[in-house]
Design brief:
Blueprint lengths: L20 H8 L3 E5 L2 E4 L1 H20 L3 E2 L5 E3 H7 L1 H4 L5 E4 L5 E4 L4 H11 L8 E10 L14 E11 L2 H21 L5 E4 L10 E7 L5 E6 L5 E3 L5 E2 L11 E4 L6 H8 L7 E7 L6 E6 L6 H8 L4 E2 L2 H8 L15 E5 L8 E4 L5 E6 L1 H4 L4 E3 L9 E2 L6 E16 L1 H6 L2 E3 L5 E3 L1 E8 H12 L16 E5 L5 H16 L4 E4 L5 H11 L3 E5 L1 H6 L2 E5 L5 E4 L4 H14 L5
Helix pairs in contact: 1-12, 2-6, 2-12
The protein binds one RNA strand of 77 nucleotides through helix 14 and helix 15.
Length: 573
RNA sequence: CGGGGCGUGGCGCAGUGGUUUAGCGCGCAUGGUUCGGGACCAUGAGGUCGUGGGUUCAAAUCCCACCGCCCCGACCA
């Protein structure tokens, strides 16, 4: 492609809205352009990168037997009513009405649609297993779009769905995807780790996230330095130390206006770990519960939801007042025999604790959990925090920011049951299809490559996803000789199946060199008057900054060698 | 949704009651000189000053409302 006829608009200055390295590089290089908050155009260069990524994804999904299809981006309300997610999705779902007033949404995901296909097309165990996938635009009205294309409101997702007759089949499909994803991200040249995840809204089945370690990662990954334990903070469990304080009778202490753990521990001059936080959770259809947690820990809501159900929410101040007779911050578990109380297992045997007195401006000291509170069950309900040890090996835990590139999870029969997607098994019994759901965010792969590989000067694309392989830089396109030589080289390289962008613009050299760096094309070939005179061409590798000088006749061979070398740097095996 | 910031040619910004046609740099167009790291000269095009309303002899500038974008938080794949 010729630069002077292309829609490539690099920016000389940083746009004011840049938020991260990848955002800056993608904007500056003219890969993307923002239209509205969280809504982007993929300009030709960016689109080429995304197409490269989708090709890799297709190859790897086809390899595990996936069949590509394309579902609609919009869908009618009814199917979402059936699964209950018309309500559940809330404000994250873009909704609209057609001319007749029927409700529609722009699909945030496609479980419902795929299950609808499955229920009409899958009749027998003989039709299983299946893996269906699509590469589709998804719409989610994010409360806060961020980091350019990393968290946007319209984004491209590869989503696949496995259909199996039983859990063994699902295990296999899950494993296939895990392997396919590993190959995909490796082929895209990214560094990543597979971590245990919590399914979130999707359900409680096994789930793994493919996390890239980058500064702007929005999730926290907990990683053991000693063994293979890797988990997102939500899914991570850590080992903490049980602490005991001097046992004694309960005494009331005056703590005027001191509500938070920091305020109370500061006021009483004790460590936060000496406190017990009492949290009151209510649900529209279930019994309220009290959760007890040591003051130096935070509650893990994912665990709470998995254990007790997604309908539980922190109680409002009014509810707390009504049940405890005190403001939030002054409540405690003692004397609450009519409410189920669950405690974090670090409180097992805890003595001498401080907690709310159920009386405004008062706390109590000397709480002995076993003696004074009827605990229904001790559970690990806390977030891991720095200093905790690995539950597998007691090794040291490390925390880092992870960008979620992909997520695989075992849905089980959640959707097939609610939507009635069943099949007849070998014995003629009707059973729900066992499903899995698997996603990859294409833009995140693109952004991640910029985050991990890019430098000050611009993007540095892994060759597998680079928009072009060779940047053919012609120094003076007004010079007929250079143009003719450049054309010759272009032909030879094209014949060797390279994808090439020729910078034939009549602008100063510096602009061309700078744009080459901004665009992040792996290999640069420079044609200039000096080179022509001596039949020398200069080849430069963006990633390694290596320079080679070759004669015209050696050029293609050398480029092939370099391409091979660059591919080998990130091969799967 | 709470707190804050911003909105002026394509991009980055200045102008915050009155210099008769709203500036600057970059970019763009035309001509010329250049041509191994954002070069130079000349000429030129391009603006509903986010939108609506108000105050005033006079508003980009003051007031009100709304919209948009961004940041921090809440929330979230």
């Amino acid at each position: 492609m010729e630069f002077n006829k292309s829609l490539i608009a690099t920016l000389r200055e940083d746009p004011k809205e840049i938020e991260s390295k990848s955002h800056r590089l993608l904007l500056r290089g003219g890969f993307i352009r923002q239209l509205a908050s969280g809504v982007y155009t993929y300009l030709p260069l960016g689109w080429r990168v995304l197409m490269k990524i989708s090709t890799i994804i297709r190859e790897e999904l086809d390899r595990i037997g996936g069949q590509e299809l394309l579902m609609p981006a919009m869908s009618p309300r009814e199917i979402w009513e059936e699964s209950g997610r018309w309500e559940e999705y809330g404000d994250d779902m873009f909704r609209f009405k057609d001319r007749k007033g029927r409700d529609y949404c722009l699909c945030p995901t496609h479980e419902e649609i795929i299950t609808d296909i499955a229920r009409s097309k899958i009749r027998s165990y003989r039709d299983l297993p299946q893996i269906w996938y699509q590469i589709q635009t998804k719409f989610r009205d994010e409360p806060r779009p961020r980091f350019g294309v990393v968290r946007s409101r319209q984004f491209i997702m590869k989503d696949s769905y496995s259909l199996d007759k039983d859990n063994e089949g699902l295990d296999k499909s899950f494993q296939f995807h895990k392997e396919a994803y590993t190959r995909i991200f490796r082929r895209c040249g990214l560094n990543f780790e597979i971590v245990d995840a919590s399914g979130g809204l999707m359900g409680t089945g096994e789930s793994k996230e493919f996390m890239a370690r980058v500064e702007i990662g929005e999730d926290t990954v907990v990683s053991c330095k000693n063994c293979d334990f890797r988990a997102s903070l939500e899914a991570a469990k850590g080992m903490g130390e049980v602490l005991k304080f001097e046992d004694g009778p309960i005494v009331e202490v005056h703590t005027p206006g001191k509500k938070t753990v920091e305020e109370v521990s500061g006021f009483l001059k004790v460590s936060p770990s000496n406190l017990v936080k009492s949290m009151f959770y209510t649900s529209p259809h279930e019994k309220p519960i009290i959760i007890l947690l040591r003051g130096d820990y935070e509650i893990n809501e994912a665990t709470l939801h998995h254990k007790f159900g997604f309908s539980y929410q922190p109680a409002t101040a009014e509810e707390i007042n009504k049940v405890f007779g005190a403001e939030p911050g002054f409540i405690g578990p003692h004397g609450k025999k009519d409410i189920d109380i669950y405690a974090d297992d670090l409180l097992k045997g805890a003595t001498g604790m401080i907690t709310g007195a159920n009386k405004n401006d008062y706390h109590i000291r000397g709480l002995n959990i076993e003696r004074d509170v009827k605990i229904k069950e001790f559970l690990n309900l806390r977030d891991v925090k720095a200093g905790d040890r690995c539950i597998q090996c007691q090794g040291e835990l490390e925390f880092y920011n992870g960008l979620e590139l992909g997520h695989i999870f075992k849905l089980g029969t959640k959707y097939s049951e609610t939507l009635g997607a069943t099949f007849s098994d070998e014995k003629g019994e009707e059973k729900p299809i066992v499903m899995g759901s698997y996603g990859i965010g294409l833009e995140r792969v693109m952004a991640c490559a910029c985050e991990q590989k890019g430098d000050e000067a611009g993007a540095v694309w892994p060759i597998s996803i680079a928009p072009f392989e060779i940047y053919l830089l012609m120094l003076n396109p007004a010079d007929k000789e250079i143009v003719a030589f450049g054309r010759e080289i272009n032909q030879a390289l094209t014949k060797a199946a390279f994808s090439i962008i020729i910078d034939n613009r009549d602008v100063s050299a510096g602009i061309k060199f700078n744009d080459f760096e901004l665009l992040g094309i792996p290999i640069r070939v420079t044609v200039g008057p000096k080179g022509i005179k001596n039949n020398r061409l200069d080849i430069y590798i963006r990633e390694t900054k290596e320079v080679f000088e070759v004669s015209g006749s050696d050029l293609v061979g050398k480029c092939l060698e370099i391409r091979d070398h660059l591919y080998r740097r990130m091969s799967c095996e």
